[in-house]
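Most newcomers find our protein records easier to grasp once they have seen one. A learned vocabulary of local backbone shapes supplies the integers on the structure line. An example says more than a description, so a record of this kind follows:
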Amino acid sequence: MHGPTRLVTTMPNTWRSSKMANDEGQVSFPIDEPVDFVIIGSGSAGGILAKELSTNGFKVVVLEQGPYRRTTDFTHDEMSVLIFDELSSGGNRTNQQTFRDDERKVAEAPQIQPTNYAQTVGGSSVHFTANFWRLRESDFKERSMLGPISGTNFADWPISYEELEPYYTKVDWDIGVSGAPGPYDSFRSRPFPMPPMPIKSSGVLMERGAAKLGWKAQVEPLAILSRAHNGRPACINCGFCMGFGCEVSAKSSTLVTMIPLAEASGNCEIRAECAVFRIETNDQGRADEVLYYDPDGNERSQKARAVIVSGNGAETPRLLLNSASNTHPDGLANSSGFVGRNLMFNCHSRARALFEHPLNDFKGVQVTRLLHEFYETDPARGFYGGGGIDARPFAAATPIAFAAIGARPGTQNWGVEYKKNLEHDFTRILFLFIGATSLAQDSNNITIDPTHKDRWGRPSLRITYKDHDDDLAIARFLQDRGMELLDAAGADKSWAPPVGYQNGGAHLLGTCRMGDDARTSVVDRYHRTHDVPNLFLCDGSSFVTSGRGQPTMTIMALAFRAAEHIAAFARNNEI
């Protein structure tokens, strides 16, 4: 045991791990012996890194703060998942985060957690909607194309689309993606492994409206199986995708694609419900020990030849900042001061419409058609940014979620009329969801809250965020195009809620950005930190620009690429 036992507030028994690290058939490494790699986090990046390194013969321990759920643990229980935040271990009730929109203000802990991510083996790849866009060539070199933007840290990536394309293709086939090429897509070296999901009524209406306007709707690529692939079955169109785990393993999370292969290698141990609170370095400046709380609240440690942090764009900088020491007074790997800075959520807006006939869009996957007509920045608009528009049921996918936000604008959200409208509208409503760019700014950041702690006693993360004027401008521009689309599609009524500043997000990007210059980035092009040679960071925090709204596929492609280079470094004794 490393240190004293701590009191930990545990979740209800139904939320506890159904598969612990010492289950029969799973490798278990002695806790007092070093392994090759400790990976912190098991989500979109961590799960891939675990599989790639363990199947290449390296001894890997994965530390995941959430429980290990089986596919059979996932239900359609809206109250548990949407209201009580089952997949995020209770949300802000148990893992308090604080938020403010200005660094001069005292951050407060809202009722709803500002950063939306799952705490479970497989991470947010378990509960995400599974929209799966690649970035384009332009996303990696916009600074060179467009020039500087005042008040931002707008920069080029140190890698190109061409360098990442083979790994996008690996994601397509190893993870499992259904789709078809779109009219504006970047080149791909191999076709999609599966055909698109069947088009829904929302997709038909989007195609109809786009055609009338002279635009081109395209198939939405999805990390959901349209047919059996790699031993997993096809989607059954239950409709519980957004926010829920998939009970048939058709959603291509790392829980069902990568983690089983990592464990089957005999070289990987998944330690669930283990909350990391610190990374220690030795006298040579190398990361050599990871400190964490086990499921019973005991303080433990695991030594390793190298450490990889894949927590996400909020948890990764939080851990580095909480690992400050005399040697690293501003936080681990933070000589640049860029750890936690440049947080990007992707700006969003919505539009909604009612149609005279039932759409029944709650059935099946969320999205089958997408509009990328306005993906690229057009300087003639007078502001930076671009994005995509997709048609989906959004909250109308599930009755309780729709009841929470389904009142028609300008009407009461209670009473007889409200109930009548909900019953009528649930089958006839269509949402347009708009994902757009966010600009990197010093003022948007993750820091450590001076007073709040989470249920393990770790200092909480504090989010400071206010959208750039250009972010709001592109969100409004795309919302206007969405309203045109709904009108062209034949909507009876349509509404556009006001576009305002975001007070949270699910896309957690940019907080430990990659770059060639150690003065303005945290990791190099291979995800090695500039300051600590055996410490690697790989998740959404590595992003330099935000993309247009769906980052998960790029996170996975970066993880496959990072794993290849990290394995080579280890074999050549370059770690």
